[in-house]
Protein 1
Amino acid sequence: MPGNIPDIVIGRLPLYLRALTRLAVEGQEVTSSHELGRRLGISSAQIRKDLSHFGGFGKQGTGYHIAYLVDQLRQVLKVDQEWEVAVIGAGDLGTALLHYKGFSDRGFRIACVFDNSPQKIGKNIGEYVIHPIDEMQKIIQERGIKIAMIAVPAEKAQEVANKLIEVGVRAILNYAPMTLNVPSEVKVQYIDPVVQMQRMTFYLT
Amino acid sequence: MPGNIPDIVIGRLPLYLRALTRLAVEGQEVTSSHELGRRLGISSAQIRKDLSHFGGFGKQGTGYHIAYLVDQLRQVLKVDQEWEVAVIGAGDLGTALLHYKGFSDRGFRIACVFDNSPQKIGKNIGEYVIHPIDEMQKIIQERGIKIAMIAVPAEKAQEVANKLIEVGVRAILNYAPMTLNVPSEVKVQYIDPVVQMQRMTFYLT
């Protein structure tokens, strides 16, 4: 299936899942592509087309059953399981990630954290002990971890990424403000608040 | 000019600026669309086309002068000035943002932070005093702040956004995991690590 669905469609599915989960929390049981579209600022036609790639989950006229659609989307996105995630870098950002409560009910669990600073290694952040970066490859390989968040300075990020990929990591969320060079079988997503703000200042008057 | 340039092109300019700034830090003075393309995983033809929207900054055969191109891109993106940014929410994430060192040399300066928790109001985070959220509109309007980062829980984010927009905020970086409903003159960018990871798990085997 992955080969047939445009990546841009895949990119919207987590947004649908997030909005549907919210509707469910608000107590709603059924929704429509129109309501979902209004919530997300996406046209209802686009939503129907996107969902039709997966066999369409709704019936014309009666709307989508939210619980069913949530279930299907979780399966498609493979977050009907819990993925272990490694965090590299225990600075302010790494610490905020370790404290974040929003991963577990959406398919992810931070499993371990690594840093190279002797002042940090062995210390605790909440329930996590900071491991030395020298043990990163061993631990990640042993646990079979496929997903990592890189929260180290830009000049260290490529080296960290290379080491992660060597031991089987295939999905990287990169918080370091630089573009990583990775083989085609590895997926990378980027978070750089400055890049996103610079995109908006262009339009400010 | 904004009306004529596709938004997708604008979205790439901060990446060019970031990569060029890095090359400059590494001591390089001249680069090519090929080198930039390799660094960014973008085709050199695309880069030349994107930059041609702004009159093209390079000469065929001799490459781009990095310092000049950096300067031009900073002007185009309007980050040749320093924008004041308000942070709403002084939890783990807001705190990490206040400690982040990477804003100031890229066009932004956090000016103030707000929270609604009596335990937090009046306390310091680094050089910042946490202001009560009741003073948010007054302070933002007085200072003429146009950019805000929302780092409050999802169920409060829309209400906060509405209040920000009322007093002149026109660019929002939303860290709350939900889609905001805003008028067309307001730009929003989103950061939700879970959405970005769910985009990648689809491809994992």
Protein 2
Amino acid sequence: MSKIIRVNMSNLTVKEEAVPEKYNLLGGRGLTSQIVYDEVPPLCHPIGPNNKLVIAPGIVTGTAAPSSGRVSVGGKSPLTNTIKESNAGTKTSQFLARLGIKAIIIEGQPKDKNKKYLLKVNKTGLEIVPADELSGLVTSATVNKLLEKHGDKVGVMCIGPAGEWLMANAGVCFNDTENRATRYSGRGGLGAVLGSKGVKAMVVDAADTSGIKLADEAIFREGQKKLVEALRTHWVTKPGGALNSYGTAVLVNVLNEAGGFPTRNFSSGRFEGAAKISGEAIAEMVKIRGGKGTMGHSCHPGCIIRCSNVYPNPDGSEMVSVQEYESVWGLGANCGIDNLDVTGELIKLCNEIGLDTIEAGVTLGVAMEGGLANFGDGKKAIELMQEIGKGSPLGRILGQGASFTAKALGVARCPTVKDQGMPAYEPRAVKGIGITYCTTPMGADHTAGYTIAPEILSVGGKADPLSVEGKADTSRGLQAATAFLDSTGYCLFTAFAILDIPSGLEGMVETCNGVLDTKWTVNDVGRIGLETMRTERNFNEAAGFSKLNDRIPEFMKYEPLPPHNHVFDVPDSVLDNVWEF
Amino acid sequence: MSKIIRVNMSNLTVKEEAVPEKYNLLGGRGLTSQIVYDEVPPLCHPIGPNNKLVIAPGIVTGTAAPSSGRVSVGGKSPLTNTIKESNAGTKTSQFLARLGIKAIIIEGQPKDKNKKYLLKVNKTGLEIVPADELSGLVTSATVNKLLEKHGDKVGVMCIGPAGEWLMANAGVCFNDTENRATRYSGRGGLGAVLGSKGVKAMVVDAADTSGIKLADEAIFREGQKKLVEALRTHWVTKPGGALNSYGTAVLVNVLNEAGGFPTRNFSSGRFEGAAKISGEAIAEMVKIRGGKGTMGHSCHPGCIIRCSNVYPNPDGSEMVSVQEYESVWGLGANCGIDNLDVTGELIKLCNEIGLDTIEAGVTLGVAMEGGLANFGDGKKAIELMQEIGKGSPLGRILGQGASFTAKALGVARCPTVKDQGMPAYEPRAVKGIGITYCTTPMGADHTAGYTIAPEILSVGGKADPLSVEGKADTSRGLQAATAFLDSTGYCLFTAFAILDIPSGLEGMVETCNGVLDTKWTVNDVGRIGLETMRTERNFNEAAGFSKLNDRIPEFMKYEPLPPHNHVFDVPDSVLDNVWEF
């Protein structure tokens, strides 16, 4: 990948730049975080003219490497005010890579805040096109309108109304394999950054481009083979394995059994209705209802894990893609809701309005605690979500996320770190993931250092979830590995296989070497990951964050969580230790 | 003053404690800040059970010292998340002092969040009384209901609906000389802390108490005489002087002339309608309309400055007290409104709902910029304020203050520091006050270090408002003097006289010596003030704040302000220098 495209929305100019040498070995999150660190004033207003949005495919994205179609989106987060990277699986990423685009940097801000623009990318470059006709459209309508004009082979990135309204829970949406508007760089409100720049959408046309030129094809092929083999072997990632058969929601019963499944705004670790929203239940519904329902769906071409799904209506027509673990948890258990048709409807609304489902779920849980609905009231939950889509005053509250909603309603039990809603793992029942929530530069984020692997799944080791012992090291190690992985363009779920199968990890590193002409070994993975983490931490420190922001919400320190009745008893010194390297 | 009363709202118990020796020489802000520092976990949730609300009269409050009826309210602020002290002038403070109460500390939180309580204070002690009948009442109704039962001689502290709804702009209200519910410890949302503890009100009955026993009556009398003399001589504070004749709004024309009068959400330093909302205009209306209208009103017995007023309706009946400078600015010029009847109505709504008028004014300005009303639309401004009183979703946004409203509406031009709305002086036109806004532990606050005195009024020296030169020293010096003054119980407006008249300052210090049996000289004032500031700063640092939070809103650094067309060009090093002592 040979160029960086700089888009200035203040004066509507585009500049193509050679990739500076220091960025040569970076991709995905490693690159977005480095550019944000280098170019964004840490104290800038996230929706002001000085923030930037950076879009970058991973190192191996666009090649034949398996499950590597991730795109990273980075900037200063309107939700957390920290640096932020959020990635999605989409062919759009592969198209950017094939066009030789290492990164797109969107900066500045149009004077007229009502104007909307489209970025048109193809082999001749990038063009800024007025696109007021897309204003206010939900994401599916946006994608459909763009496909009509630009053909159904393009990759699309867009925002929904939430992004146009600069809501802190606005995600950046991409099209999936069949052009649904369902793949999200969801976390951290980067959709609002795009909205603040007047960019409603981007179409990426990779027609007439040759494939990616490999620096060392032999090494690449060797690595690819090892990695594919590992993915096809591991119980989590193999065809017919856990993810492929039941989707990510295979975790519902597992976490519920472990007492770490946050229920009714994090007031219990076990939900009596868990089985009804589990991956097994989703698969059963797909089987019973038939029609358009699909398990083992892939978010981008070339994925061999295929953990996605398409959930059907009772009549077999398509309701929504995807009933993910995090989504059925947040919009289900966390709201006391045990009905997949309700979670499906809520996910669909999130997709259409342009919201992160995790933040939306945590927000609804807080809203219910604040008295806006009873826990378990699916009808009211749907109405609340619709308010966001209307941009009503209530919607303006809910669209800003969980911390904001808690403040508006006077709720002190707010499960957020750095103002980002916690995902579907209870820190009081799974201590390591709490350490990750607290210490990652991203705000509460499970993907940043997924200690659930050893603590619950016995993947990459085995650890007692209720114990604090050794967990700073576990979290740091996984955070570093993830920072590396998020830079390669590989899906995070490849981690299950490479944590347990050494040759898989070797293979992954070799594919990178094949693209970059490096001599990395598996020993470089941690080092590279820690470098990216340090860069992100440095940005946050310059933005006013310190270890004092790496803390669990206060109520989790004095309120024991059933069924284990543990509080979050991780000492501050253990949290701080994550950054002592 | 001999005792501290500790009120535990978790188990509804009351404990009287002897004053620890380390608190002996403290009062007012010095004492509330020290107790908050000593007892409140810096990272606690402001509306959770571990925050505390501390109420303390000043060192000389309750004596015959002139203009000394201030009460300090302290805690961790729901608005800024910093330590907070906000003080008001009210006989309630004098009554607490005469009852020998050095401080009341309210801690804990009732399990049932709907229960309301009244604290009943008299010579026999403090009693917690169920008071659900006060639930939801506006402040005037609360005060009136309490007076019916407890007689019209009591001091009252209460919150309005805003405090009950835990809004971050909820103030703590006290009764004035004639029992209006109009005197506010307004800034920083401490009313929400009271609300979170289930305390709707407190009545203080000082019947049958003897006066305060002076340690050295001779010194006290000597000091009192000098201070009275200074106050009666200085052009700002003397009878028939600037404050007494025109109220604080005498500043409107002065600041407007200086180009430092923030207009239409801080987009200009000059307002074409300024004269219509000036102190002179208020006095003229009082004169023309007659009836209940009064200039030279006092907020508490024993004030000799008497800067307050009662503003009449066209028919001479009472509309509102007080048309203050900050209030007519925030709810007037900052919203493009040039009509005193409109500002009067808006102030009345703030008083009744229980809101700080400054934060409310900055919030309305942001709301207008965000499209909720046109600048200058008084009718719509009143409707927006009424929404807060309804607790509607829109009201829940506006009631949380300016930063919150800006976020909800996607407005990046938000004039706040540490999430507290800026008062009525433009930092781009008056650089020193900007330094105070940035560096005081309280969030944007003019009273914390009123550099307007030398920069605009030539009081306590003379400095060019547009120059940065020497302003860190000016701000630090005034911040220290103010921290001392806020601890004495004297009104801040005594500062005008003591800054210019050395014997006045001597007299003030001597009255403190007369009460405390100390040997302080004028040279101790700065030292004592800096000690309080350092304590507050230490709390904030432990709460996660650093010099990176001592920064002006970004837009003021790139958007020049008419008419001088200056940006805020104070280097970070100058801001940081304030704390280098």
